[in-house]
Write a structure and sequence with these properties.
The structure is a single chain. The protein is flat. The strands form 3 sheets. A 5-stranded mixed beta sheet has the order 6-5-7-8-9, with helices on both faces. A 4-stranded parallel beta sheet has the order 2-1-3-4, covered by helices on one side. A 4-stranded parallel beta sheet has the order 11-10-12-13. Helix 7 packs across helix 11. By secondary structure, it is of the alpha/beta class. The chain starts with 27 loop residues before the first helix and ends in an 18-residue tail after the last helix. Strand 1, helix 2 and strand 2 form a beta-alpha-beta unit.
Length: 344
């Protein structure tokens, strides 16, 4: 491959000879500029779970362009969001690159590479229009498709829709962006919300927080249009709450990952319940909790651990609001989705 060519699927000509094909923009030039400016000798690379397999390839391309005395270190820690930084590796490197998410907290030490996608969203958006019920629509997406967000708004407006967008709270970088734990950008009057992005992880969370809205999923990655259906999730949540109503000993989980700690909520539960015990951990998994002789757990960390992985735990795993329902402080019909708003 020539020096002026870019890999198939790359978003732009990087000006480098790349060793591996790629589907996203890894912004190698920006990373190399930072390495040279800081005379970095140790560089940390952190990828989300679905992209860890790409880590060695990206390291190869960076090594081609850097001096031999620069060491690249791949994080093996689990990573599910920008709140999930490998702080151990970050403290031990001169440059730390976090791939796949947008900045949740600005830092001179961290380079955030959101991995903008080159997938064309408009064919599947055209198909999704059949599912939109009104002429006003909210538009949301993830960091990977933010490079086309303005174009998507214009595209909808050209077809006669009034597009409603907003920037959420401080956890969100872009207008119209949603996270798995934050849907403040969907706090708009429109009854229809169009989510453009891969998978159902984000739109299902959005639909659980906004059950009054018609959430249409236009997935340009899997080329499918669906409606977000939360009935299975809600049945699981009600079942977990019912199982926990007879619990006597509660394990209150405080997650030590940066960006996921809500100690004030954990402390309030401990203050009100003498049979509650604080458990601190970084990675909340069924195996790690199995050795604790508790009747139920309440998770003050990432809410998606509770809603998505809840059935895998050997004892009921509740959100803080679900806990208040289980102990009788709130009525059962008040159950709602747990989110992070402005939390860091």
């Amino acid at each position: 491959m020539s020096q002026d060519a870019s890999s198939e699927g790359d978003l732009r000509n990087t000006g480098m000879s790349l060793k591996h094909d790629r589907e996203w923009d890894y912004e190698l030039e920006r990373i190399i500029d930072a390495i040279e400016e800081r005379d970095a000798k140790r560089v940390g690379l952190q990828f989300p779970e679905g992209l860890k397999r790409r880590g060695p390839a990206v390291a190869d391309d960076l090594r081609q362009r850097c001096d031999d005395d620069v060491t690249f270190m791949l994080s093996g820690q689990p990573c599910y969001g920008a709140c999930d930084l490998d702080t151990y590796l970050m403290r031990r490197t001169d440059v730390f690159v976090h791939f796949g998410h947008s900045p949740m907290k600005e830092s001179d030490k961290i380079i955030y590479v959101p991995l903008f996608s080159n997938v064309d969203p408009f064919p599947i958006m055209e198909e999704s229009l059949e599912k939109i019920e009104g002429d006003e629509v909210g538009l949301v997406t993830t960091a990977q498709h933010m490079n086309r967000f303005d174009d998507m708004c214009d595209w909808l407006e050209e077809r006669g829709y009034t597009v409603q967008t907003r920037k959420g709270d401080d956890r969100l970088t872009y207008e119209g962006q949603v996270l798995g734990c934050n849907y403040a950008s969907a706090d708009i009057p429109a009854d229809d919300v169009l989510y453009v992005g891969g998978g159902k992880f984000h739109p299902l969370g959005l639909a659980m927080e906004h059950p009054e809205k018609n959430v249409v999923i236009a997935d340009p990655v899997n080329n499918v249009v669906t409606l977000a259906d939360t009935r299975k999730f809600m049945k699981q949540r009600y079942a977990s709450v019912h199982k926990a109503m007879d619990a006597e000993k509660w394990g209150v989980i405080f997650c030590t990952k940066i960006g996921q700690g809500r100690m004030e909520i954990a402390e309030k539960i401990l203050e009100d319940n003498e049979n509650a015990y604080l458990i601190t951990m970084d990675e909340v998994t069924p195996d790690r909790l199995r050795n604790f002789a508790m009747d139920a757990f309440v998770n003050t960390g990432c809410p998606r651990i509770t809603t998505d992985d809840g059935p895998r735990f050997h004892k009921p795993m509740l959100t803080p609001q679900e806990y208040r329902i289980a102990v009788g402080d709130e009525p059962l019909d008040s159950l709602k989705f747990d989110t992070f708003h402005g939390t860091w």
